[in-house]
Amino acid sequence: MKIPAFVPIAVFIALGLMACQRGDPAPQPDAPLSVVHYDGENRTAPNLPGSTYEAAIRLGPEELAPVQGGTLAAVYYFFRELPETATVKVYKGTVDNAPENEVYSAIVSGDLQENSWHTHELSNPVALDGEDIWISVRFAHADARRSIGCDPGPAVTDGEWLYDSLDGLWRTFQQRSPGANINWNIRAVVSP
After folding, report:
1. Which pLDDT band holds residue 33 (cuts at 50, 70, 90)?
2. Angle at the Cα of 83 (from 13 to 100), degrees rounded to 5?
3. CB–CB of 33/73 below 8 Å?
4. Number of domains in the chain
5. Secondary structure of 50-84 in HEC code, one letter for each residue
6. Which of 55, 58, 118, 188 lies 20 to 30 angstroms, CA to CA, from 99?
7. pTM for this one?
8. How confident is the model over 72-92, as pLDDT tens digits?
9. What does the DSSP assignment read for the chain?
10. Torsion 120-22-28-2 (CA) sign
11. How far apart are CA 124 and CA 39, in angstroms?
């Protein structure tokens, strides 16, 4: 069962003060923005071999129902160790358990810090109109690194998708690493 975290801003702020035990605390949006996510506090980051990846969450109509008609205004994401390159991407629609249409992309490599939450404000907010929304962070590194942050689990359906350029496939992290039980520290910030 999918259990997205849709939290009105006042409740999110109260809970967010206790949320992260490691790294920076999660950012807090200004009212009237809402945050939709599957993850909990940052706990670690998986040690991924050198490659190009996209870590993503997929938010369907059920998860987005409370904010339907709003726009995706920003993305929060956590990096433990810095990749060589990073890009925030947004897709609409799903085909064969993969994102269908890229609707937004922005390189974010220049302003990153290790062991920190980051905020990317979309230059062109994306309308939430009933289609699945995939929010991804694409990153690359030549050697093994613990880059994209994750919570301690348990994994939630659609909270841990991972594309690897070595095989060109979208799979859940559990499919790629049997026994893994995490969700990516990637969050949608929605404007009404």
Report:
1. confident
2. 75
3. yes
4. 1
5. CEEEEEEEEECHHHHHHHCCCEEEEEEEEECCCCC
6. 118
7. 0.86
8. 999 999 999 999 999 999 999
9. ----EEE-HHHHHHHHHHH-SSSSPPP-PPTT-EEEES--S--B--EEPSEEEEEEEEE-HHHHGGGTT-EEEEEEEEESS--SEEEEEEEEEEETTEEEEEEEEEE-GGG--TTEEEEEEEEEEEE--SS-EEEEEEEEESS-EE-B-B-S----TTS-EEEETTTTEEEEHHHHSTT----BSEEEEEE-
10. positive
11. 25
List the domain range (segments joined by +) for residue 69.
Answer: 5-191
Pairing of the two strands 71-79 and 169-172: unpaired
Q: Residue 185: which CATH number?
A: 2.60.120
